[in-house]
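Aim 2, interim progress: modelling of the glutamic acid-bound target.
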Amino acid sequence: MTGPSSELTTARRVVIKIGSALVVEADTGLPARAWLAAFAADAARLRARGQQLLVVSSGAVALGRRRLGLKRKALTLPEKQAAAAAGQSLLMRAWEEAFEPHGQAVAQVLLTRDDTEVRRRWLNARATVDTLLDLNVVPVVNENDTVVTEEIRYGDNDRLAARVAQMIGADVLVLLSDIDGLYTADPRSNPAATRLERISEITPEIEAMAGGANAGAGVGTGGMATKLAAARIARAAGCATIITLGGRPNPLQAVEDGAPATVIEAGVSATAAYKSWIAGSLAPAGTLTVDAGAATALRGGKSLLAAGVTAVEGRFGKGDAVLVRGPDGELGRGLARYDAADAQKIAGLRSDAIEAVLGFTAGPLIHADDLALVGSPESR
Ligand code: GLU
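Predicted structure of the complex, ligand included:
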């Protein structure tokens, strides 16, 4: 199957971005309860199939505006931030109510750009969101508008959603929009515009289509240009993007049934993208030397346990990239789960002895997921 449905039905992790125009009723400024209820039923179907879902939801500012009686069209930045503070809790209440009939727990996750760009914070945020997903929760993510300043904003939730998709290794990012895909020109002004079904590479021609007359297509913060920017981030992280109409009651079902959409294919697999990032773009801050037994285990896809480590060099923090060296030379690079001082203390120890020494345990020294081995196709 090459329609958009194959990406959606086979994905293990799905990120769905939902704009304010869908979540908040334009005329009343209240949550769009009927749409949210229908969407939750649609989403519950994917959950029942065993798929993990994360929702990136806008709407805080729009809901807070009404609550605070801020009627002027252009709000000052502090007013917007105040509106977001008041609206975010209303937004979560609406999501709670929507998923409640399905017995589906949700959880609020508010991020700032640093949470996906500063590695240590990224690892923390990833661990929390991973845990929520494994506990069968649907995380509802938004930008932490109340505290972010202009310089540290994602700016739009399309990009936020793409960064989150990258962070959790999602297989597909669904951008629910007010337009059913990417067009060769703005379809509202150019009747000859055609929708692109499937994009396997983001060429300069495609950039031009999204950046020209089409850039402003769509209400909300993000037009086509930001959607394509999001798709580019997702693609590089091994995640496909589906742009489709969100206004219908069951947009996910509609995609599976072949409704119009544009699919931007994933460039590489999510794991390969992540591992090549570890292998290539991080300067190692230290070296862990391991024994022959550990070297064999790592080559077999296992995590690096403290027990197999014979020497720790360098000054690295938790989450920094380190070189892993075996008896025959470099084995690969990985992200350390302990800082250098703690790694020193636990080198050579069995896993069940770590807590007594450090007062906590963070599992293996390097998890297999965070290890890029030399010579593996993923590390190139
Ligand atoms: N974070 C904003 C809100 O919740 C929306 C930003 C966007 O939609 O791009 O109101």
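The chain is about 40% helix and 20% strand. Residues 184 and 190 are 9 Å apart (CA to CA).
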